[in-house]
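pasting for ref
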Amino acid sequence: MTKYLKSVPNREGFFGDYGGAMLPPPLIPHFKEISDAYDRLSKSSEFLNDLKYIRKHFQGRPTPISYLKNLSKISGGAQIYAKREDLNHTGAHKLNHCMAEALLAKHMGKTKLIAETGAGQHGVALATAAAYFGMECEIHMGAVDIKKEYPNVVRMKLLGATVVEVNEGAQTLKEAVDSAFGSYMGQADKALFGIGSVVGPHPFPMMVRDFQKIVGMEAREQFLDMNGELPDLVAACVGGGSNAMGLFAGFIDDEDVELHGVEPLGTSTKMGDHAATITYGVDSAIHAFKTLVLVDENGEPAPVNTIASGLDYPGVGPEHAYLHKTGRVNYTTASDKEALDAFYKISSKEGIIPALESAHVVAFAMREAKNHPGKTILINLSGRGDKDIDFVTETYGFGE
């Protein structure tokens, strides 16, 4: 583990001013149980060897790095590479922490997994893990996202999960988290809440980051092997931020490597039209932890909007808030329009149909390439776009 990863968070789960666990009293002993189990098992050769076996023989790791020759050519300037998490089993990075969370739950004697999902990739991954380990699975998903990402709903049900439709509020990711937390409170003795990103109360931001760091560790070794040097820029999309923390973990101690997080700008900078939490958020709390949050005039989490359901969250992982404050990571945005253009371009020029979430970082790479001639950009292609093709083509057509 790198020097940085060993130093944060502290024992209370804080990354500087952000993080912690602001739990209702009934959940405090359950989260302590999770934290103690993770502290013990993460240093256990049995647990680590089981996880290593699963990653190689079930998930299909390591995933490769692809040189995006055609996209680099049309963008001009820097050469663009992609870490191919879309080739991870279930089609996204989410399985990296879901298999590990399920393995943890099994060691703890739990029989059920509960979670929220936005785009459905986390839900599919957790349902897959539950099937693998012979556990029950309950996934909460907003009604808007169920309609938009219906192929993933079908996959979750085929995998044996119960999908709970959430009809409160905006009927998207925040409400799904609220609903899942409420359900978990009544089942914490037998269930583990498999949080889907580097968010939530401690120990989940740390735990999910640690489970996702395999992405960055692989990518660092692979890029060095391909090019004989490290990339100049490393970038990933940021909603909650798990795929980004996974990639950043491999390069966080390399001061010469620029790290970039790309948030969804949606349709405009107006509050309610985007989900760019770090860019426009303020210090606050959401879902039992302190972080940057988009808030309305009453100080409550604001409505958010983005074409990518998996980025549709008014908060962000506390470690991202910390890395923004320290300046180690540069955070920027990409709009719905830019993401759509990138979606069509990488599909038609490279033969890779990306998730709309990942399309945001593809847009960043295309935009920034011309500003960095002679440099290299490594992006995390965090998921594939099978789930998005019906929505995109029915709403926007087939591009130019």
